[in-house]
UniProtKB/TrEMBL annotation:
Single GO MF annotation: S-adenosylmethionine:tRNA ribosyltransferase-isomerase activity
Catalytic activity annotation: 7-aminomethyl-7-carbaguanosine(34) in tRNA + S-adenosyl-L-methionine = epoxyqueuosine(34) in tRNA + adenine + L-methionine + 2 H(+)
InterPro entries, A to Z: QueA (IPR003699), QueA_dom1 (IPR042118), QueA_dom2 (IPR042119), QueA_sf (IPR036100)
Name of the featured protein: S-adenosylmethionine:tRNA ribosyltransferase-isomerase
Organism of this sequence: Novosphingobium hassiacum
Lineage: Bacteria, Pseudomonadati, Pseudomonadota, Alphaproteobacteria, Sphingomonadales
Gene assigned in the entry: queA
Length: 342
């Protein structure tokens, strides 16, 4: 499909620079396949779901993967986006033309990186020497990797270390938050449990590739960056039992959805999964694992807007986004949410 079909105009004042306080006070747009759009609050979620439904959360934890350093007099910026092994990460590098294989980058606080391999997409494999775990080095020298549409408008600060983590975050490895789950609080989870709504978790380490624009003119020419994920056998069995019992599996966030769909066969059975996924979902895709999606509002011409258009229909999502803009919804990572029930 033509990428420009997924374009829309978003006034910049709709981009949220801070999350709602408290988190579950954010707005929620209810979207079905047809009918009116419902202007709700995230706190309304228990009344929108049925006993026996299950919400699936991503328990990845964002690491401070944004590094600023020098090689000689040249300033070098690096955003880690995918772990290679215990001491190596693949990274998008700013001012990469000043780097060569074997060059050492000084990131401060006693942290150095060695540029080992340049990849075809322009990224580099960086090796971090020493005995300390790389995560410890990042806590010392790194910053939270806020999306460019936020970082371009204000500096990252200490508050972002809390704001940009979900309450489920427990597995280190993401360089972007699974932002739909930022809206959840212990009180909301308790209310959902009281309604009989179940919760499950999986892990998908979100990469910085999620923010890369689609530069191709046609979706068939776009290459997705791979991300590592895991669903264990027990979780897969419980999710299959939910659907077999006639209840719904609702993905919280596009990251949960993408991993669930990657783990599900043509027979609709969710299987244990561990490894990379580069699934790219566009209109025409037949969903196998999920019955709905809770997600924030996405960038124009992004792979994520293509995904929600595949779930609900392009015209329906264009209308929903038009409604959200006209009614003052806040967009992107720190913005409001939507509940899409096809």
């Amino acid at each position: 499909m033509r990428v420009d079909l997924f374009d829309f105009e978003l006034p910049p004042e709709h981009i949220a620079l801070r999350p709602a306080k408290p988190r579950d006070s954010a707005r929620l747009l209810g979207v079905g396949r047809e009918g009116v759009f419902r202007d709700l609050s995230v706190r309304d979620l228990p009344s929108l779901l049925e006993p026996g439904d299950v919400l699936v959360f991503n328990d990845t934890r964002v690491i401070p993967a944004q590094l600023e350093g020098t090689r000689g007099e040249a300033r070098i910026g690096a955003t880690l986006h995918k772990r290679v092994d215990l001491r190596r990460w693949q990274a998008f590098v700013r001012n990469a033309k000043r780097l060569g294989e074997g060059n050492v980058i000084e990131f401060g606080a006693g942290v150095t990186g060695i540029a080992e391999t340049r990849h075809a997409d322009g990224s580099w494999t960086l090796m971090f020497p020493g005995d300390e775990p790389v995560e410890v080095l990042l806590e010392r020298a790194g910053r939270m990797p806020l999306p460019p549409y936020i970082a371009g408008k204000r500096p990252t600060d200490e508050q972002d270390r809390t704001d940009y983590q979900t309450m489920f975050a427990s597995k280190d490895g993401a360089v972007a938050a699974p932002t739909a789950a930022l809206h959840f609080t212990p009180e909301l989870i308790e209310a959902l449990a009281g309604r009989g709504v179940k919760s499950e978790t999986l892990t998908l380490h979100v990469g910085a590739g999620t923010f890369l624009p689609v530069k191709a003119d046609d979706t068939t020419d776009h290459a997705m960056h791979a991300e590592w994920g895991r669903i264990d056998a027990e979780t897969a069995d419980r999710l299959n039992a939910v659907r077999a019992g006639g209840n719904r599996v609702i993905a919280v966030g596009t990251t949960s959805l993408r991993l669930l769909e990657s783990a599900t066969g043509a027979d609709g059975v969710i299987r244990p999964f561990e490894g990379d996924t580069a699934i790219f979902i566009t209109p025409g895709y037949k969903f196998r694992a999920i019955d709905g999606l809770m997600t924030n509002f996405h960038l124009p011409k992004s792979t994520l807007f293509m995904l929600v258009s595949a779930l609900m229909g392009l015209e329906r999502m264009q209308a929903a986004y038009g409604h959200a803009i006209a009614n003052g919804y806040r967009f992107y990572s720190y913005g409001d949410s939507s509940l899409l029930l096809p």
